[in-house]
Amino acid sequence: MNLKEKIIEKLNYSGFPDLKFLGSKEVLDLALEVLEELLEKEKKEFYKFLEKKNETLVFDDLEDDSLLDYFWSIINHFENVESSEALRKIIEEFMPKLQDFGNEVAYSKPYFEKISYMRENLELDLEQKRILDLAIKAYKDRGIDLEEEKQEELKKINKKLSELSEKFGNNIVDSKKEFEYIIKDFEVIKDLPKDVLDLTKNAYKEKFSSPQAPQGVEKKEGYLFDSDPSSTSAIMKYCSDRKIRKDFEVASYTTASSGKFDNRAIILEILKLKDKKAKILGYKNYAELSLNSKMADSPEQIFELISGILQKARKKAEDEVEELKKYFSLDKIETYDLAYYSRKLKSEKYDVDEKEVKKYFEFENVLKYLFDFVEKFFSLEIKELKVDSYNEEIRVYEIWKDKKLISYYFLDAFYRKGKRPGAWADNLRSKEYLKPHSPLKEEG
Prior knowledge:
By secondary structure, the protein is of the alpha+beta class. The protein has helices spanning 3-12, 19-22, 25-51, 67-81, 85-106, 109-121, 126-142, 148-178, 194-208, 229-238, 242-253, 264-280, 286-290, 299-327, 335-350, 354-359, 363-378; strands spanning 181-183, 223-225, 381-385, 395-401, 404-411, 424-425, 437-441.
C-alpha cells in the first residue's frame, strides 16, 4: 500500500481520525495532490447526480460521505491549532479550486430543480422534509432566481471573501505570535499568581539563557510574557505598574492593525464586498442579510435590545467606577485600571482573594463537574479515549448514549503560539453512521 492509499484508508476509517498520521510532514507533502483527486471525484459524482431522471431520484442520493470535506476540515483544523507555512500553502493553493466548485454547486439550477422535485414528490419523513426545506431555502437565499450576470458577480464576491477571511485570520495569529513583553522589575508583578510567574520566568530563561540567545541581551533574571490570555489577564489584575497595564491593553486592542500584519484594509474590503452582496440579493445592508437566518427580525430590534440593557447597566457601572475612584483617591480611572483596582477593592473591602477562589476552578475540577452535569442532564456516558495526536495536551472522549457510541469530543484546551485565539469549535465530520467528531478548543 502506497502513502496515498494509506491516507484514503485513514479517511475511510469510521472511528476517531489518526491526527498524528494525517498531520505528519509526509502526508502534508502529498495533501494537495490528494485533495485535488478527491475534488475531481466529487465533481464526477455531482454531474452523475444531475444526469439522473427525476423519477429515479431517492433521498439517499443526497447522502454523500464526502472524503473531500472531511480531509479539508482536518487540514483547516490543523491550521487553526498548529499554524505553519506548509499548511497555509496547501490552503492558499486549493481554496480557490474548492470555492469554484462550491459556487458551481451553490448556483446550479439543475440541482435546485432536483431537490425541489424530491421535496414535492417523494415520500419523506419529517427529518427528510426539514433537510430539503433548509437546502431549498439556502438556494433561494443565495440568489438562485437571479439573472446569470448577478449570480456571476456573487460567485466572485464569495470567492474573494473566502480569500480575505483566510488572510484576516492568519494576520491575527501571526500578530499575536509576534507579541512579546519583557519585565525585569519583580516588584511590579510580585502579586501575580505563582503559576504565571513560573511560566513567564521559564520562558525568559529558555529564550535568553541558551547558547542561541540573542546577542546584546543582559542575562539577568526576567519574565517573558506573550499573548497567552491567562498571562495578559493576570497583568491587568495584579501588575502595579500602570504603564505596563496600558501597554498590554493597547497591544490587545491593536492586534493586526499595523505593520506587515495590518488587517485594516482587509476589513474595509470585506465590509464593502458584504454590502455589495447584500444589495445584489435585495437587502438594504449586510445586517439584514445576516439576520435572515437568525431569531431577530431586524437590526433595529437588536439595537432596541442593546439600548434597553445599556440604560439599565450604565448607572450601575458608573456607580462602581465612582466607588473605585473614591476608595483609592483617584482623580481619573482608565479602562486598563478597572481590573486592577476592582480586584484590590474586593480584597481590601470584602476580603475576597481571587487566587483562593481560583483554586476551586482548577481545570481538572471544572472538567469533572462539566462532564458530571452533561452526563446527568443528557443521559450520556463520557469515556476518555487514549490516542496519539499532534500535541500531548490533546484529550479525546467517547460520547455514549443508550450503550451506543454516538460521537467523539476532542478537547484542546490551552493556548500556544500559532493557535487561533478565542473560544471556538470545529466539526470534522457529521455523518451519523460515521460517528461525528466535534473538536473543541477553549481558552481563559
